[in-house]
Give the backbone structure.
Amino acid sequence: MTSEEEAMGIYDFEEQAQLAAVKAWWKENGWLVILAVLVFLGSLGGFHGWRYYQAQQSLAAARAYAGLEPAILANDAKKLLAGAAELRSRHPKSPYAARAALAAAKASYESGDLASAKRELEWTMRHATEEAIQSTARLRLARVLMEEQKFDEALALLPSNDAGPFGRLYDDLRGDILTALGRTEEARKAYQQAAAKTAKEDAFRSLIELKLDALAGAGS
């Protein structure tokens, strides 16, 4: 036997040994591989199934909210409260649930039902996923509390030094509450902060300046 034939024989023997080892391993562990593949494929199917479910839920929430449009236009507090409650129950994480609650709060407030208005605003403030909706609920709830002369509770809702788009509104409302409390210097500072965050050509700036002028007149 030549050295080349001998080398090939050794190669064949090693290959057969490796194949035998693979067969033995597969016989003992193959079911684990099959299970892992099935789990992986199942997870892919589950992922796409979950996405489909979420899409269907979002569509259902959007349709439910669209169905409230006539009640929103009519400012029908009763229908809006019922619709908001249903959306909260079926789609609590949908942005439409918070929008419906905000609409229900507005209609309730305008009908004189402050308890319902506060309840809807509190829920919206805690659960809204959209910052604008959450901040609007916070402002409206603070105003309702101010009207009830619960000034400390109203002030506690308003974040200080907010640089976001609602910052000037928080400062302005804080100024209104402090004015009602007779804390003139603090109110002036709040209005000045609101003015600093508002463009000079903005009509809201003119309103703030009127309030500052009123404070100056009251202090003279």
Observations:
- The radius of gyration is 33 Å.
